[in-house]
Structure formats: C-alpha cells, structure tokens
Specification:
This protein has 618 residues and is α/β, with parallel strands linked by helices. The chain folds into three domains: 50-118, Alpha-Beta Plaits (2-Layer Sandwich); 138-483, Rossmann fold (3-Layer(aba) Sandwich); 500-617, Sandwich (Jelly Rolls). Helices cover 16% and strands 26% of the residues. It has eleven helices and 28 strands. It is globular.
C-alpha cells in the first residue's frame, strides 16, 4: 500500500542507492534479499486494499447482454454501471472476497477478465528578474526559476534552504515563447480542486455544452451540470477538495500568472478540468479513476495528470489509459515515493513481494512517468532530513525502463484550500510540472498527438551532472524552454527488452547480462503448446543473485502483479526460481494453454552474464 503522507519507509527489493541518489550523507538502508527473510514465501496476500462489495468485470467480445447478466447472476451478484467499453462493476455481497469472486467470474465464457476494485493512494509525501511575474510568492518557486534563492523547506528545521543555480525547469524562459492557451485543458484526476481559490478560479475549464445550474444534462454526456468537472466520490458537479492535494497539483500545473496573487503555474494560460476521485484520506478506488479518465478523454483534455499509485497491476486501468491515449491525451503519472526501483519487485516484510507503482509502470505509449528532483538536481530527497544528517532521506522512485524523466518535486510551493498556499514534497508535485510543460507544448502546436508531445518532452531534457545516470529512460530533468523547440521524433533512448512488449525471441538458449540498477530485466518470448511440459534453466554467475520468472500469455509490462490466484503475486505467473545468491534457477511446468509465454531474468544483487535455456521435457 502506498502511504499518502509522511516519510515512506517501505523496503525495496535490491540494494538501496541512498548515497548515490541523495548525495553525500549517512549510510544507506540496505534491503535484505527476500529469500533471507525467515519464512518469506513467494505466495503472499494482496498488499493494499480493495473496495468491498465490488469487482471490475471486462466482458468478452461478442458477449450478449443476456450472457453478461447471467454471468454476474450466477455469482449471486448484480450488474452495476459500465465504466469503459466492455468494463463494468459487478456488485457482490460485502462478505465475499473480491479476489475469489473475480477468479470465479473469469471461468464464465462471457467474461474476459475480472479483478477487485483496487484502492490507490495519492503520491504526496510530507514530513527580481524583469521577465518574472508579479505574483508575490514567485521566489518560493525554485522549480520554475532557481537563482540560488532561499526557499521554504517542507520538513524543517531548517525552515529555509538554497539550492544550485539553474537547477530548475526554465519556465520563465519558456513564457517568453508561450504561456499556454485556454483551449488546452489539463485534467487533474485527484482529490478535487478548490474552485474559488483566487489563483485558480479564472483557470477552470468550462464545459461548452452545459448550461450552469439548470438541473439538466444539456450535452447528454451522462453528467448533470458538469460545468467545471465532476466529483466521482459524491457523484455531483462540485469537485471541491477536502484534502488539498488536488488543489496543490492544479496550482503547480496552471495557477494564474501576473494577477498580483500568490504563485504562477507552469502553464498559466491553460485550463484546469477538476475531477475528484480521492477522499479526505487520499484514498481512491480504481473504478472512480476509470470513470474520471474516460470523462477527461471524452471531453477533450490534452493532458491528464495522475499523481497517485499502488502496487497492483490492473487490466481495467491499463485499458482506460490506453483509451485516453487513443483519444489524444498524454497521461502524466507520478512515479511514486517508496525510494525504490520501479523496474523490480519490491519486498515489504509484513506483506511479502509487492509490485512497482502503477499506473506509472504500464508500458503504454501515451504514459509519461515522472520522478522527483531536488533544488540541486539530485533524485528526490527530503531537504531538512539531509541537512540534519539523518538516514534514509531519499523518497523518489526511479527505473531505467519505467521512469521517463524527473522534475522538481521537493519543497514545492503551491495553492491550498480555500485560498492559501503550502509547501509539499513528492512525485505528486513533479507530475504536474511536466503536465504544465506538456500544456505549453500542446498550446504552441495543437496538432501534436500524445506520443509526439511525450517525444518532445523527452528530447528536451537537461542532463545535469548531479543527477545519477542510468536511473531513468532519459537521464534527464524537464526543461520547459527547450521543449518549445524540441523535435517530436522518437528520442534517442535505448530500446529495452525489460518489458513484455520488447521481449526477444528464444528458441532454446540465450546468453546475455543483467545489472543492478541500470539493466535489471531481460525478457524473452516463446510460443508453447498446451499440455506439453517444459523446463526453463537460468545459470547464474558466482556470487550473484538473479531470479527467474515465467509468465503466461496475456502478461504485459514487466511485473503484472494482480495478486489474484491463491495469494500469489499474479494469476499470470507460471512459476518462479528465487533460490538466492549464486544458485542456479529452474522452473518446470506444463503449459496451461497454447500461446506466447515470457521467460524473465531479473537481477536482484550484482551484475554479470547468465545463460537461459528452455527445453521440452516428458
């Protein structure tokens, strides 16, 4: 479960890189290998929570309305509203385990797949230039313009600190080219937005097809009086913010500029679509998020900001984001605050194995995953914690294949309900920096699609020397000025075979190398026949700890952790070899169906060459 607030102390799988990431300081926390933890099995209970009484069901293509209703009725459940295409809610008895109900539903031929309604958490983490605007707190916004000024610290003491000159996103320089267009909408899918805040009230998106306050669904989109967005928690047209997280995010992306009030957003000319999906605790259900993502895509949002996540891989959520991409939206997602590698499985002693942060880790072309950077261009860490010499100050997640770039996410000063301001830490704050820059890019060239905007942002990064190499796809930090002149062609980033979509074929033997943390995963694909038995062997170099996983057809991304079958990390997992340091790994299995299976080599400790072999047996 991703904690919405406070310093996160989840132990990540792999050696901690605390000193490398946060700079010189106290010794890092080193995580033990899961095999070394007494009694730690691969089969674990689902980490995190799901909404009781609900299952997300995706019906098979061609399933009739009667077949869908019968499938749900046989479970003693009833069919709820449709969310996105063939996805709907099945309402089950509160006493029934949603994991069990989902697996039973999947046995019905009318059902393609089913899963619990997973709970996600918001990714907040708290413990005089002539070209600058007249907003009085602009000097607090080091992420926009860093001249080494002293700024407020989120986790005092000290109360103020200064960073490195130009460790920023060059936003005032970008404003000399473009400040954004009201036709460019950034959807904030979050805890809501306080709509009367004086730095946001003139930046709210207005639904052109809706007449305010007449109690009618004028544009026939299924929502009555949805003038500025929708509250998917209260199911009403007033998505005000009871937590403050969404208001903070909205201000970073698009607060008003030159209004002699507070701060300025990255794209001050863009509009904000307020979509409330999280409650006052920072918790949100996947079903609410799916409805909001579809709403944003259908209403023409150019950018959708998702500053939340959790360790469960969701087919329905993945489909919703893919749908948004097809509708023209770039989906900007925070990478998470567990100080871990999103390319690996995590391990938490009470929970066992946990997946990386989703939705940030989906391998989808329209997703851009964002980590946090500090005021001196290091990977995100608590400023006060570092200055006090405390251990374990870093929080931002990273990932050579799963995190695209970083953006300011420490001591970020932005709007707070009802009319105030506060300073926050977290990749939740980094994502709207990038969403704002994406808004500037779309405003300057509305013809660009989401993948082209993503390419622009990745081509435009700065690569400061303080930012460790090999921990993100680009090795870079967002730069708004360069983004307004960068090419939209695919960036010159390394191709990865660490996801199912990039898997290489294997006939019998493959030899290669993996390395922590910069090349953790190699994935191979092989078509196998139902009912035949196979043996997969991984020869591991001396003193190294490499693991072996075999995934069924239908697996996507790198770690499809749906926690569905008798407590294992995934119904898509055929088997795993995790015997420990220097041990060769073997997985023997009978193929449950004909299709493309994935053989996955993952480095847990160290680097080196391996040999992977697959043979038919029996």
């Amino acid at each position: 479960m991703v904690a919405p607030r406070g310093r996160v102390r989840t132990v990540a799988a792999g050696v901690s890189l605390g000193i490398l990431l946060a700079g010189a300081g106290p010794a890092p926390l080193v995580a033990a290998h899961p095999e070394a933890v007494a009694g730690a099995p691969l089969a674990v209970g689902a980490p995190g929570a799901f909404a009781p009484g609900r299952v997300l069901v995706t019906f098979a293509p061609g399933a009739t309305r009667a077949a869908r209703a019968d499938a749900v009725a046989r479970m003693g459940a009833r069919l709820g509203p449709r969310l996105l295409g063939p996805v709907a809610i099945a309402r089950i008895s509160p006493g029934v385990d949603p994991l069990v109900a989902a697996r039973r539903l999947e046995r019905d031929p009318a059902v393609l797949d089913a899963e619990p309604d997973w709970i996600r958490y918001l990714h907040a983490s708290c413990p005089g230039d002539p070209g600058c605007p007249d907003d009085p707190a602009f000097d607090e916004q080091w992420g926009l313009n860093n001249v080494g000024q002293r700024h407020l610290v989120n986790d005092p003491p000290p109360t103020r600190a200064r960073g490195a000159v130009d460790a920023d996103a060059d936003v005032p320089e970008a404003w000399g080219i473009h400040t954004g267009d009201p036709a460019t909408t950034i959807a904030v899918v979050d805890s809501g937005v306080w709509q009367t805040h004086p730095d946001l009230d003139d930046r709210l998106w207005t639904n052109p097809g809706e007449i305010p306050g007449n109690g009618l669904d004028d544009d026939a989109n299924g929502f009555v009086d949805d003038v500025h967005g929708w509250d998917f928690i209260g199911d009403d047209p007033v998505p005000n913010d009871a937590l403050g997280h969404g208001t903070h995010v909205a201000g970073i992306a698009a607060a008003e500029r030159d209004n002699a009030t507070g701060i300025a957003g990255v794209c001050p000319g863009c509009t904000i679509m307020a979509l409330r999906v999280a409650d006052a605790r920072g918790a949100l259900s996947t079903s609410a998020a799916l409805r909001a993502i579809r709403y944003a895509a259908d209403e023409g949002a150019a950018v959708i900001n998702l500053s939340y996540g959790g360790p469960q891989w969701s087919r329905a959520e993945r489909r919703a984001i893919a749908y948004a991409g097809r509708r023209g939206a770039l989906v900007v997602v925070s990478a998470g605050n567990e100080h871990r590698d999103n390319d690996t499985l995590g391990f938490d002693a009470p929970l066992g194995f946990t997946g990386p942060s989703y939705p940030a880790s989906y391998d989808l072309p329209a997703i851009l995953s964002v980590g946090a950077s500090t005021h001196d261009d290091r990977l995100g860490a608590f400023t006060g914690c570092l200055l006090r010499g405390e251990p374990n100050c870093a929080f931002s997640n990273w990932g050579r294949t799963s995190v695209d770039l970083v953006a300011p996410g420490v001591d970020v000063y932005s709007t707070a309900p009802p009319s105030g301001y506060r300073v926050e830490n977290g990749t939740s704050m980094s994502a709207p920096f990038v969403a704002g820059v994406a808004g500037l890019v779309r405003s300057s060239n509305p013809a660009l699609g989401p993948v082209e905007v993503k390419n622009v942002l990745m081509n435009a990064v700065d690569r400061p020397s303080a930012l460790p190499r090999g921990l993100t796809v680009t090795d870079g930090r967002i730069n708004a000025q360069r983004a307004l002149g960068a090419p939209s062609t695919a960036p010159a980033t390394p191709l990865t075979d660490g996801v199912m979509g990039g898997a290489r074929s294997i006939l019998r033997v493959r030899r290669d190398r993996v390395a922590v943390p910069r090349d953790v995963n190699d994935i191979y694909r092989r078509r196998l026949r139902k009912g035949r038995s196979y043996e997969v062997r991984l020869r591991v170099p001396k003193g190294r700890d490499f693991d072996l996983f075999v995934w069924k057809p239908g697996a996507r991304d790198t770690w499809p952790t749906d926690y569905g079958c008798r407590g294992t990390i995934s119904c898509l997992l055929v088997g795993a070899g995790i015997r420990g340091v220097g041990r060769h790994e073997v997985v023997r299995f009978r193929a449950p169906r004909t299709g493309t299976f994935y053989l996955h080599v993952s480095a847990f400790v160290g680097s080196g060459r391996y040999t992977l072999t697959i043979d038919r047996i029996g």
